[in-house]
Structure formats: C-alpha cells, structure tokens
Amino acid sequence: MKIALVMEWSTCEKNEVVSRVLNKVAEENGHTVVNYGQYNMEDNRQTYNQNAVFTAALLNSGAADFVITGCGTGSGAMLACNAMPGVQCGLVGDSVETYLFTQINGGNCISIPYALRWGWAAELNLEYLLEKLFAKEPGGGYPESAAASEQRNAKLLTKLKAAANRDFLDIINNEDPDIRDMVKGAFAGKRMELFKENCSDQNMIAAIEAVIV
C-alpha cells in the first residue's frame, strides 16, 4: 500500500517527527510512504482546504491508497476531506479510534489532531495510533457480531458519497476564482513534482497543470 502524508502549515513543525514514525510503522508492515509536506514554515502555507483537494487528487488518481492528514483539532481537515469525492476520512486521536475507524468504516484517510493531543509522549501515542492502521485488514467490523451490518453500511456509504459528489475533475475545472486558487495552492511547492511521480492518470495531471500554470 502506498501511503501519503499531507500536513498543513499549522502542523508543519511536526512533519519530521510524524514522517519518521510513519515510515517506521509502514515499513514494518510492508508499505511505502510519500511525504508531501508541508515541511516547514518556509513552504507555501497550505491550509486544510487545499490539503483536502490534494488528498482527493491522490486518492482519485491512484497516486496513493491511503492518506494521513490533519490539523490543529483534526476536525477541519476531516470535514474538508469528506467534502471531496472518493475520500472517506475519520477523525482519530488514539489507537482505539484508529482501529475502530478502519474496522467499522474502512475509510481511506485519517485526520489527526496535531495540536489538541500533542503533549508528553506524543511520539508514542502517534506510533501506537499508526500501528492500528495495519493491525487487521480494513473493514472487518467490530464487534464481530455486528460485522456483517457494518460492512454493508460501509459499502452503502461509499455509494451514497459517489451519488452525492461531483466528479473530481469537475472541481479541478471549476471557474470560481476561490476554487482555482485552492487548487493552485494545493499543488504548490514540491507537491506537483511528487504527484506526477506517483500518478499514472495523465488526464488528471493535464487538468491540474492547466489550472496551476
């Protein structure tokens, strides 16, 4: 599985720590990680709204199988990501929440509250949290007695989201100046270069390049 780390400006000072812990846990489970930043305050100040657009591009194009994002409380990033087509994001702050989200909802993105729960032993909490991403195959259900119902509802949620959302390329091609500015900001810095390295969807690459030039 290819995992993308997507952080915003308010959490960028934690990028090095998060990337190190994530790579450790991912490698132990046979997965790879691409760190898309934001790396430091010298980068473009990417917001959780821009990150949601970028997350959707990664997941809808196959450039990533799973995205780890977040913000100060985690709520803004979670809400913005869930507004995007093809993204099902859970707000998780500890290992139990991660496990239950992956097992019950089987989503493809998590949002971490980097300020709200970042204190003493933060690295340990983060490591345990991430370990539960890979503890079992996603979507298994919890408890086992409710697994069949939960799996059915997770599939229905995917269908509901597809019915409720427009195609992602419609968002990229939107003429609203605010939307176009968000798309440009989402791919600023090194992100477009890394995205092109990991994306095989040439139509999406072309659509994005037409906006950000």
What would the keywords be for this entry?
globular, 213 residues, five-stranded parallel beta sheet, 10 helices, 10% strand, alpha/beta
Provide a descriptive summary of the structure in words:
There is one protein chain. This protein has 213 residues and is an alpha/beta fold. It has helices spanning 15-28, 48-61, 75-82, 95-105, 122-131, 147-164, 168-172, 177-186, 191-198, 202-212, and strands spanning 2-5, 32-35, 66-71, 89-91, 109-113. The protein has a five-stranded parallel beta sheet with strand order 2-1-3-5-4, sandwiched between helices. α1 (15-28) links the parallel β1 (2-5) and β2. α1 runs parallel beside α5 and α2 packs across α3 (75-82). The longest helix has 18 residues, at 147-164. The protein is globular, with a radius of gyration of 17 Å. 40% of the residues are buried. The mean pLDDT is 94.
Helix coverage percent: 40-55%
- How are the strands ordered across the major sheet? 2-1-3-5-4
Strand fraction: 5-15%
Uncertain runs: none
> How would a crystallographer describe the biggest sheet?
5 strands, parallel
The topology string of helices and strands comes to: EHEHEHEHEHHHHHH
Number of helices: 10
Shape: globular
Short description:
This protein has 213 residues and is an alpha/beta fold.
How do the helices and strands line up, and which of them pair or pack?
Elements: E1 2-5, H1 15-28, E2 32-35, H2 48-61, E3 66-71, H3 75-82, E4 89-91, H4 95-105, E5 109-113, H5 122-131, H6 147-164, H7 168-172, H8 177-186, H9 191-198, H10 202-212
Parallel strand pairs: 1-2, 1-3, 3-5, 4-5
